[in-house]
Design a protein that fits this description.
By secondary structure, this protein is α+β, with helices and mostly antiparallel strands. The protein has five helices and nine strands. A hairpin with a 2-residue loop joins strand 8 and strand 9. The model has no long low-confidence stretch (mean pLDDT 96).
Length: 215
């Protein structure tokens, strides 16, 4: 395996960031960007985000999860609490998430503290999911070693029969997390690699300082 990728080139010229045009709250700017990404099209899942955690082995690990809600309190996603990411969060609740939206040449990086949301909210969302997704959550011991794909499919088939005429209960090991941001960085691609990078840092009571970083 030997690939030379140095010829990959792209000039970023779709937009810019100027401090005088920015809101005081990074949540307001995030909401504006998210809507613009959706409207522009070309991104199948605008809510796909990378989340980085630190595991018990001391290594960082990233993976893609889907953002399911955001407001001034933070960013919510759902997962198996016993998964690798769930165990990492239990040991260190400082995480980083990022969104990359190539259709508008934008990236957002958010550092924050993550906590479980309430059982009521988790149950409400779980019951709104398609039955296949509900059964999948029950069938999978996420991140655990399994003997074969067949064993997983057999587990799903057994659960389909078990709950054929019943409401599927939310597993105790499954639910939501909310990431409460302490820092945002908004990245807008610019020509000649002189990208715009605007950082917001929480001061207190949802007040934020803003500065510009060198690209």
């Amino acid at each position: 395996m030997n690939r030379d990728l140095t010829a990959y080139r792209k000039s970023y010229e779709k937009s810019f960031l100027e401090e005088k045009d920015l809101p005081e709250s990074p949540f307001t700017l995030f909401s504006k960007w998210f809507k613009e990404v959706e409207t522009a099209g070309g991104v199948e899942e605008a809510n796909a985000m990378t989340i980085a955690t630190i595991g018990s082995d001391g290594f960082p690990k990233t993976r893609i999860v889907l953002l399911k809600h955001f407001d001034k309190n933070g960013f919510v996603f759902y997962t198996n609490y016993n998964s690798e990411k769930g165990k990492a969060i239990a040991g260190n609740n400082k995480v980083c998430i990022s969104f990359f939206w190539p259709n508008l040449e934008r990236q957002v990086i958010i550092k924050g503290i993550v906590q479980k949301i309430g059982e009521e909210a988790s149950t409400r969302y779980f019951l709104s999911r398609p039955r296949g997704s509900q059964l999948g959550a029950l069938a999978s011991c996420q991140s655990e070693v399994i003997s074969s794909r067949e064993s997983l499919e057999n587990r799903l088939e057994a659960l389909e029969k078990q709950y054929a005429e019943k409401e599927i209960p939310k597993p105790e090991f499954w639910g939501g997390y909310c990431i409460h941001p302490t820092q945002f960085e908004f990245w807008q691609g610019r020509a000649n690699r002189l990208h715009d990078r605007i950082r917001f840092i929480e001061q207190n009571d949802n007040n934020w300082s803003m500065d510009r970083l060198s690209p």
